[in-house]
Amino acid sequence: MFLYIGHPILGYILPAAIFLVSFAVAWACYKHFTKKMK
After folding, report:
1. How far apart are CA 38 and CA 29, in angstroms?
2. Phi, psi of 5 (to 5 degrees)
3. pLDDT, tens only, 1-38
4. Whole-Å CA distances, 8 to 5, 17, 19, 21
5. CB 10: neighbour CB atoms within 10 A?
6. What is the pTM of this model?
7. Residue 14's CB: how many other CB atoms inside 10 A?
8. Would you list the DSSP string of the chain?
9. What is the residue extent of each domain of the chain?
10. Strand ranges in 1-38 using DSSP code E only, listed in sequence order
11. Is the dihedral of CA 7, 9, 13, 15 positive or negative?
């Protein structure tokens, strides 16, 4: 899990940012592969 460094905002933004980045990468890969199929 993520470390809580006594900063409530960081505790929420850091996991959210990591999730958004991984989601964006997965979405880009999905779009790329669907384009390749057609």
Report:
1. 15
2. -100, 35
3. 555 556 777 778 888 899 999 999 999 999 999 998 87
4. 8, 14, 17, 20
5. 14
6. 0.56
7. 15
8. -----S-HHHHHHHHHHHHHHHHHHHHHHHHHHHHHH-
9. 1-38
10. none
11. positive
